[in-house]
Specification:
The protein has 27 helices and 18 strands. The chain is an alpha/beta fold. The protein has 3 domains: about 160 residues, Substrate Binding Domain Of Dnak, Chain:A, Domain 2 (Up-down Bundle); about 150 residues, Rossmann fold; about 220 residues, Rossmann fold. Helix 10 crosses helix 24 and helix 11 packs across helix 16.
Length: about 675
C-alpha cells in the first residue's frame, strides 16, 4: 500500500472511532447542557455539526471563489501528486496556486483580527498617555520603561552630568505614537520584530520576509491573491510569511505589551473554570470575546457600592462575573475572574438559565447565541461598531474609551435588573476546577529565579539535565468537527506524561483549566517523574496559562528568553520545543501557526488542514519550509500520534544539542565551585 493511501486509511479509521457512539464532549458539564438543550429542543452548534458536513474540496483548500467565474472546485487527487496538471480552474490556476492563495488569505484574516485588536489597544493607550480619558491610566511603569527602547524611545534627556530621567507621561506618549505608527508604516521594519533572537532576525532579513508595516503586509496578500496576480505558490507563501511575522511579532505583541502596561502585567493567581462557577443566587454576567478594554471597566462597575446595593435590592446576593473565550482569559489573568467555558460552550452557558446578560465584543461570537438567549431571559449585549448582529432581541451598547465606565455601568445595571425575570428551571452543573493562571513570560522569570534573581537559567538547566524533556506550546480554538476538548486534553496529558512542560493560551488553556491540569498538585498525578519533581520543587503547574490567543506573543518572548539564558542554542529553531493546535478552527489559528513556523518552531495542527487537496504545496510547507526557516508545518488528527510527533521532534533537537542523555547528579565541592567561578 502506498504511503499516501495508508495515511488516508488511518485518517478514516480515526474519523470512524470519533463518530461511532462517541460523546460530543469529554466534559461532564458540557454533556449535561447538551442533554438539556435537546430536552428543550434548542439547537446548538453540536446539532448543526451533525446536520451539515464539511465540503471535502473546500476543506482540502482547492475551492477557489476569488472571481465570479467560479467557484472552481478541484477534486482531491486520487493517487499522490500524479495528474496534477489536469486539475485547473477556469483561469488555469493549479491546485497549488489555489491552495496557497486560500492559505495566505487565512493568514491575512487572522493577522487582521489580531492586529486590529492591537490597533484599538494602541489608540486607547495613546489616549491614556495624553490624559484624554480618565478611565485608563498607565499602571505598569516598569514594563513601559522596559519596552520603550524597542521603539527607539529615550528614557533620559541631556548628556553627561545634565542627563536626567524623562517624565513617565512623555515616554508613554512617544511609545504610543511609535507603536501606532507600526500599522501604517510603508517601509523599514516593524520595530518589535527585532526582539527575536539575533540569528532569527538575520535569517528573516536574508530571505526578505522581515515585515515593513502591519497593514501593508495584509493588504499585499489581498492584492496578490486577486485573479491574475501572483500564481507561484512559493512566492505567495513569501508574502504570507511576512504578514504572519507582522502579526505575531508586531500587532499581537504590541497588543499584549500595551494591555499589560494599561491593566497590569499578569502574575500567578488562583481561580476556577467551568459552568459551575455560575451562581444561582447571584446576578450572572458573562463576558465573551477578545478585547479587555471594556471588560476591565465592567469589573470596576460591578464592584461599585451602588451596583452591589442594586443587586441586593432585586433579591440577589451579589454579582458574579465570568468569562468565555479570550476576554475570559484576559480577566482571569489579571483579576481572577473565573472562566465559564470555551468557544463551544457559549450557547450552553445561556442554556443553564442562570445568565442575566452576556456581553460580547469581537471574534469567535456565534450569531446563534442570540437565538438561544431568546429562549431564556438572558440579555445579549453587543458593544463594538464592527461587530453587530441583525437579530431584533439583541441590545447594542457601543463602547467608546471616553465614556467607558458609563457604558460598563449601563451593562451591569441591565444585567441586575434582569435578575427577577429569570424563568423557572435554572440548571447549573456542579463541575468546576481550581486553576492557577497569570503566567506572563515575566512571571515565569521570577517564579523560577525568585524576586531578586529572576532568570530562565533554572528552566534551561532542567531541560539540559533531562528532568524537563522540552517545551510544548499547545494553543488554539475548539472545533465542532471533533469531540469537544478531547484532542486538547489528550495531547497535553501525553506531553506532560513524557516530561514536556506545556505553555498554553486561548481555548486550549480553558480546556486544561477545566480538566484540572493547572495546579501544582496535578503534576504528581499526570506528569513523568522529571517534570513532576520540578513542579513540586518550585510550586509550578505542569501546564502554564499564558493568556488569550493574542498573547501567543508571550510564548514567542518566553522562547526568546530561553535562547538568551544560554545552553540551548542560538535560535528558537534549535530549542527542544514544538507547537500544537489540536482543535483549531479560525483564520487566527493559521496566522498564529505560521508565525511560529517562521520563528523556527515545528508546529502540528489537528482535526483538518486546508492544504490536503494540493499535495505539492503541502509538501512545501511540511518539508521544504524546515530547510528555509528551521520550523515546519505538520498535520495529525489522532491526538496521541499528534503528541508523539511533537515528542519525537523534541528528542531530535535534544540530540542535536548533545543533551539527549540524562546527566547524572553531581555533588559540587568547593574546588569545583572555584573552577566554575574562574570560568
Amino acid at each position: 500500500m502506498a504511503e499516501e493511501e495508508k495515511k488516508e486509511v488511518e485518517k478514516k479509521e480515526v474519523e470512524k472511532k470519533k463518530k461511532k457512539g462517541a460523546p460530543k464532549s469529554i466534559d461532564p458539564a458540557t454533556l449535561k447542557m447538551i442533554a438539556r438543550a435537546e430536552e428543550l429542543e434548542i439547537e446548538t452548534i453540536f446539532d448543526r455539526a451533525e446536520k451539515m458536513k464539511a465540503c471535502p474540496i473546500g476543506a482540502g483548500g482547492t475551492c477557489c471563489k476569488n472571481c465570479s467565474q467560479g467557484p472552481c472546485r478541484l477534486p482531491l487527487p486520487k493517487a499522490g501528486i500524479e495528474g496534477e496538471d489536469e486539475r485547473k480552474g477556469l483561469c488555469g490556476a493549479t491546485a497549488n496556486t489555489i491552495a496557497a492563495r486560500n492559505f495566505i488569505r487565512m493568514i491575512a484574516g487572522g493577522a487582521a483580527a489580531h492586529s486590529d485588536h492591537g490597533r484599538g489597544v494602541a489608540e486607547t493607550f495613546l489616549a491614556a498617555a495624553k490624559k484624554e480619558t480618565e478611565y485608563y491610566v498607565i499602571k505598569d511603569t516598569k514594563k513601559l520603561l522596559e519596552i520603550a527602547p524597542d521603539f527607539g524611545v529615550a528614557l533620559t534627556t541631556g548628556k553627561g552630568e545634565k542627563e536626567k530621567p524623562r517624565k513617565i507621561d512623555d515616554i508613554a506618549v512617544e511609545v504610543g505614537e511609535k507603536a501606532l505608527a507600526q500599522w501604517g508604516q510603508q517601509e523599514g521594519e516593524v520595530l518589535t520584530a527585532r526582539r527575536a533572537p539575533a540569528k532569527r532576525v538575520e535569517l528573516w532579513r536574508e530571505i526578505g520576509v522581515f515585515p515593513r508595516g502591519i497593514d501593508r503586509e495584509i493588504v499585499e496578500i489581498m492584492h496578490r491573491t486577486h485573479i491574475g496576480v501572483d500564481q507561484d505558490y512559493k512566492n505567495l507563501m513569501f508574502q504570507g510569511t511576512r504578514a504572519a511575522i507582522a502579526d505575531g511579532w508586531g500587532g499581537s505583541m504590541i497588543a499584549t505589551d500595551l494591555q499589560d502596561i494599561l491593566f497590569g502585567t499578569p502574575y500567578p493567581l488562583k481561580s476556577q473554570a467551568n459552568l459551575g462557577v455560575l451562581k444561582e443566587d447571584m446576578v450572572n454576567l458573562v463576558i465573551h470575546g477578545h478585547e479587555p478594554l471594556l471588560s476591565e471597566m465592567i469589573i470596576v462597575a460591578s464592584e461599585l457600592p451602588e451596583m452591589q446595593e442594586l443587586a441586593k435590592k432585586v433579591g440577589a446576593n451579589g454579582i458574579q462575573l465570568s468569562g468565555i473565550c479570550c476576554t475570559g482569559n484576559e480577566i482571569i489573568m489579571r483579576h481572577g475572574v473565573p472562566l465559564a467555558g470555551n468557544f463551544l460552550m457559549q450557547e450552553l452557558a445561556i442554556i443553564t438559565g442562570a445568565v442575566e446578560a452576556m456581553v460580547v465584543d469581537i471574534q469567535c461570537i456565534m450569531e446563534n447565541v442570540a437565538n438561544v438567549a431568546a429562549c431564556f431571559h438572558t440579555k445579549l449585549i453587543t458593544t463594538m461598531s464592527i461587530a453587530k448582529m441583525e437579530e431584533k432581541n439583541v441590545i447594542h451598547m457601543e463602547f467608546h474609551e471616553e465614556d467607558a465606565l458609563k457604558t460598563a455601568k449601563e451593562i451591569v445595571k441591565t444585567a441586575i435588573e434582569n435578575f427577577p425575570k429569570r424563568k423557572a428551571g435554572v440548571m447549573i452543573p456542579d463541575e468546576k476546577s481550581d486553576l492557577i493562571a497569570g503566567f506572563s513570560y515575566e512571571a515565569i522569570n521570577y517564579h523560577l529565579g525568585g524576586t531578586f534573581r529572576g532568570s530562565y537559567v533554572p528552566l534551561n538547566q532542567n531541560i539540559i539535565n533531562g528532568r524537563i524533556r522540552g517545551i510544548g506550546g499547545v494553543v488554539g480554538c475548539n472545533n465542532a468537527r471533533t469531540i469537544h476538548n478531547n484532542d486538547h486534553i489528550t495531547v497535553i496529558k501525553e506531553l506532560i506524561k513524557n516530561d514536556v512542560l506545556v505553555l498554553t493560551t486561548g481555548c486550549n488553556a480553558i480546556a486544561a483549566g477545566m480538566a484540572g491540569l493547572m495546579t501544582p498538585e496535578s503534576a504528581k498525578v499526570f506528569c513523568g517523574p522529571g517534570l513532576a519533581e520540578v513542579c513540586e520543587t518550585v510550586g509550578l503547574p505542569p501546564v502554564l496559562h499564558m493568556g488569550s490567543c493574542v498573547d501567543n506573543s508571550r510564548i514567542l518572548m518566553a522562547a526568546t528568553e530561553v535562547v538568551k539564558a544560554g545552553g540551548l542554542g542560538d535560535d528558537i529553531s534549535e530549542l527542544p520545543a514544538a507547537g500544537s493546535a489540536p482543535e483549531w478552527m479560525s483564520e487566527k489559528a493559521i496566522s498564529i501557526g505560521h508565525y511560529f513556523v517562521a520563528s523556527g518552531v515545528y508546529t502540528v495542527f489537528g482535526v483538518t488542514f486546508p492544504t490536503t487537496g494540493a499535495p505539492v504545496f503541502q509538501d512545501y510547507l511540511f518539508k521544504e519550509f524546515e530547510e528555509m526557516y528551521g520550523g515546519m508545518w505538520d498535520f495529525e488528527a489522532d491526538p496521541i500520534i499528534h503528541a508523539q510527533k511533537m515528542i519525537a521532534h523534541i528528542d531530535k533537537k535534544r540530540k542535536a544539542l548533545g543533551i539527549d542523555k540524562a546527566r547524572e547528579r553531581v555533588l559540587v565541592d568547593m574546588a569545583a565551585r572555584r573552577e566554575l567561578e574562574a570560568a
